Structures are given as structure tokens and as C-alpha cells.
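Submission checklist for the structure archive. All mandatory fields must be present; incomplete records are returned to the submitter.

[x] Identifier: Short coiled-coil protein A
[x] Organism: Betta splendens
[x] Residue count: 80
[x] Sequence attached
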Amino acid sequence: MNCDIDGDVENQVEVEDKMTLINQVLELQHTLEDLSARVDTVKEENLKLKSENQVLGQYIENLMSASSVFQTTDTKSKRK
């Protein structure tokens, strides 16, 4: 009879350990899903910012080429 009680206690501890592990796995799965969603969001933001950066770079180049201040000077022709 004492062996049955010991077996039941061991079985109960084993079941509790399994439940704890299952809960930890489920929590980690949710964390992974959240992180994956965040990575997707950051990728989208990164693409958007890259595109905006290209537009701004082109705009700056156009402004610089239109301004005489930023025009390249030909030093050889000035020396002659």
C-alpha cells in the first residue's frame, strides 16, 4: 500500500513537471510569434525608409546640381 502512495506521488510530480514544460513551451511559442511579427514590421519600416532615403538623396542631388554654389569648377581653364 505504501508503494502505491509513493507511485502516485511520483506520477503526480511527473504530471506537474510535464504541465510546467508544456506551459513554458506555449509561452515561448507566443514570444516567438510576437518577435516574428516585430521582425516583419521592422523589415517593412526599413524598406520604407530606404525608399524615402533614395528620394531625399535624389532631391539633394538635384538641388546641388541646380545651384551654382555646388557646381564644379574647372581649375585648368582658369589658369590659362
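[x] Structure attached
Curator remark: The radius of gyration is 34 Å. Residues 21 and 27 are 10 Å apart (CA to CA).
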